[in-house]
Amino acid sequence: MNDEPLVISSVEGPIAILTLNRPQVLNALSPALIDDLIRHLEMYDVDDSIRAIIITGAGRAFAAGADIKAMANATPIEMLTSGMIARWARIAAIRKPMIAAVNGYALGGGCELAMMCDIILASETAQFGQPEINIGIIPGAGGTQRLTRALGPYRAMEMVLTGATISAQEASAHGLVNRVCPPETLLDEARRVAQTIAAKSPLAVQLVKEAVRTAAETTVREGLAIELRNFYLLFASEDQKEGMRAFIEKRAPNFSGR
Asked: In whole angstroms, how far apart are CA 245 and each of 22, 52, 166, 239, 248?
């Protein structure tokens, strides 16, 4: 019996680091692992001391897909009633910024999980793909939708139709990845980005995340309405007063999240 946690959680000041921990199966996303990841994410989402979350994987992979053994003999009704895929919406609903530090394979559900994050940093050895077509299914946790928005319809169509993977460098060139790092500096770069975000107003961070996500998922008209609402709303915050006062006084702001 393996007593190792499915998700290793650590806190470094205002940053939470969640490490997917099934390295023996390349961090295959079993229902139990996803449940544990959601539990940690939702716990940190309501913790005012945490301002950014990093997700990474143990060993040679970020996550090399869903746990096929858990789905191989399932019926459509079992897939529906189990909530195995539907529960992933709770990951996408996290309000705090999430940074994916992709240290190896991000395939199938692993690629979908990375795309649910707000920033993707990749090791030079990372690979991305949606190979579900190779086992007779299609992506079911957002792969066809988010990949298309990230890469455009033609590159996304080629990837999901052929099951081909792309390198970290290709993913970066096509806009799926923010930047590529040497393996030994990947987590340090993720920490640096997380610390930069953590120093900002938590309220502004949450509302700008909502606005950018809206831009990716709806029309320009709807996105502009959300942006303007959130812009006005922040003028009711102490952070807005502190931020502008600090700018005028030429000092660093001290944001409280209120």
From this structure: 48, 25, 47, 10, 5
Catalytic: 109?
yes
Residue of 52, 61, 106, 112 with catalytic role? 112
Extended strands (E) in 64-220: 98-102, 105-107, 119-123, 127-129, 165-167, 179-181
Distance CA 255, CA 258 (A): 8
On whether the CB atoms of residues 42 and 85 are closer than 8 A, the answer is no
CB 54, CB 16: distance < 8 Å: yes
Q: Is the pLDDT of residue 1 over 50?
A: no
For 154: left if phi > 0, alpha if psi spans -120 to 50, otherwise beta; the answer is: alpha
In this prediction the pTM is: 0.92
| pLDDT 10s digits, 170-224 | 999 999 999 999 999 999 999 999 999 999 999 999 999 999 999 988 899 999 9
End-to-end CA distance of the chain: 46
Look up tokens 């993913």; give the residue: 171
- For 126, the token pair is 């990372």
Burial profile 58-71: b = 16 or more Cβ within 10 angstroms, e = fewer: bbebbbbbbbeeeb
Helix (H) or strand (E) holding 56: strand 52-57
Angle between helices 109-116 and 143-151 (to 10 degrees): 60
Which of the following is catalytic: 106, 114, 132, 142? 132
Is 4 among the residues known to form the active site?
Answer: no
